[in-house]
Design a protein that fits this description.
By secondary structure, this protein is mainly beta. It has a single domain, classed as Immunoglobulin-like (Sandwich), CATH 2.60.40.1220. The protein contains no helices and eight strands. The strands form two sheets. The chain has a five-stranded mixed beta sheet, with no helix packed on it. A three-stranded antiparallel beta sheet has the order 2-6-5, with no helix packed on it. The protein is elongated.
């Protein structure tokens, strides 16, 4: 299986600890004709510990056409996170775009 990890633009995002926000990746440019997103999952990695911060993910990843969305909430102040949404578009073809989330307060 092939998996590619992609940084997005902008590559970082600032979010307050009390916010709840849906974060969407548009995969249109990654899909070939006839490909669709079949399976998606997310990790919200707290960078100082290297572990998946499951408390910060509200619900499963939502897939709508070429867009995948994970709602993020309840971050810890003064921490940094990496949101990785992994999705499969064809047999042996998986993408994993990621976004750095800064939580200053």
């Amino acid at each position: 299986m092939t998996c590619c990890s992609l940084a997005v633009s902008p590559d970082s995002f600032e979010m307050a600890s009390q916010e709840t926000l849906p974060i969407t990746f548009d995969a249109t440019s990654l899909l070939l004709v006839g490909e669709t997103i079949s399976v998606a999952s997310a990790e919200l990695i707290q960078l100082d510990t290297g572990t998946d911060y499951t408390n910060g993910k509200l619900g499963p990843v939502a897939v709508a056409g070429a867009q995948v969305t994970q709602t993020v909430t309840g971050l810890l102040p003064r921490k940094r996170y990496r949101l990785v949404i992994q999705f499969t578009v064809a047999v042996n073809k998986t993408w994993a775009p990621y976004l750095l989330i800064e939580c200053p307060e």
